[in-house]
Amino acid sequence: MPTLTFAGTTQKYGTVDNATVIVEFDYFVATNLIIKNSSQRPDGKRAREHALALRVSGNKSALFNCRLIGFQDTLCDDRDNYFFKDCFIEGTMDFTFGSGKSLYLPVIGPGSAK
After folding, report:
1. Which of 97, 95, 86, 82 is closest to 1 using CA atoms?
2. Residue 73 appears among annotated catalytic residues
């Protein structure tokens, strides 16, 4: 899968503008994509170490089979409505935040309930 990376942190770019990908238009769709914030892992000693992978603000946006990798606040579903199907979200804490109304459908695999 293609990988988009950026090493933004809150300290340098602010809380919501440090994301690797920032989507501000409606009807955005991503499929089979890795979006990763590659900044240094937070050590808990430095302030403002949040490292978002994705901030989505466009209404009716959808992601399918994507991996979002960051640290604190990996995904900001900022406002409006979003759909995530078969996506993997990885972070150290507060994986998602924002005022959006999101629907997350899990990956169904061997041994999972259907």
Report:
1. 86
2. yes
